[in-house]
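Reading a protein record of the kind used here takes only a little practice. The record below shows the convention in full.

——
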Amino acid sequence: MVRKPDKNVTMIRRAGALVLAALSLGTMGTAPVKALASLPAVMTVPVGQAVALPWSTFLPITLAAGPGLQSRTEGARAAVVASRPGPSSIGFRLFGRIPVGRVPVRAVVAPKVVPGGQSIGVVVRVRGVVVTGYHVLNGPFGSIDPARAAGIMPGDRLTSADGRALTSAAELMRMAEQAGEHDQSLTLRDAGVRGVTTRVVKPVYNPVSGHYQIGVYVRTQASGVGTLTFWNPQTLGYAALGHSITDGLTARPAPLRSGSLTAASVLGIVPGTASRPGEKIGVMAGPGLVSGTVRANGRFGLTGQLDRPPAVGPHTPVPVAMAEQVHPGPASIETVIAGNRPQRFGIRILATYPQTAPATKGILFQVTDRRLLARAGGIVQGMSGSPILQDGKLVGAVTHVFVGRPDVGYGCYAEWMLQDVP
């Protein structure tokens, strides 16, 4: 004989289910649940280090840690710790019953690098020639600008002429001369803001110079002062600048042919204000303190090889933090404000932004050190690449200053920069 369920018990169960559903729906708009929805496709966890998960332990989430993982509480947040390297996963259940999802975990031995902070001078040579402006010519029927007429714009990068790679301004001038003497047009490959296109230009004879010209000013190299972010004590591979060197107006990293890195000396600082960004006044100081080669120009700046360990600055390796380990709170940056020697200055990380793929502006911070505020007003041009440290780890690098607030800046995660270092 089958016993019918008690009506009161059934009603209580239904009410409990309704309450559970209501609580679930009520939490869906909370910050912890939103954080759950933005979890990365894969979490990277350094062995032996706790990685705080992006939600509060007050949210009734049950963690189901896979092999080699343990869950624990870090302050007001849940955290996961890996005991050995290798693949695993972690699952989440709301109220211990409702599956939220499962995320693959990659446990790794935390890499260690030496923070930089040294001021560096960089000279790089781009592939092709970059157009910097127009040169109006006097033709047989008045003023003429053949490059502008062909659609070439400042900021465009001319990579070849008549199928031959361009490596210098002199080579472009020579080929324009040869085409003009034979009354022919010059076919240029133009990599610009509008993509890669072909431009056909008819050189014009310039009676002032006595040569055939296409009417552009070009350059083949760029130079400037920035900051070394970190270097690998085993390979001497390094990362610097925190943002790419772009080719004119495209805002894309300029492909490089070669480049060199040397020490720079800071002679002075123009402080930043609400209406004007500040800058370091620096000069190349030669290869005595820092020297190396530039191999690549990527999204997060320059990478390459040092000739030897820098003569000044930190020399103790520190772990590189995963993006999930960076949190609001006290931190510091290493940078030079006079001479050659880096100094440490206090900052406060105001916010961190979850990123599932490499991107800039992952860290928002504010300068709190009175010395740096008095000397520079905060972050100035030339500090890009200055390493950001927190909890004994390298967490990022300075990339941008906040418009109108020189004491507030952005940084990128060091984890992303590390991926490009040889």
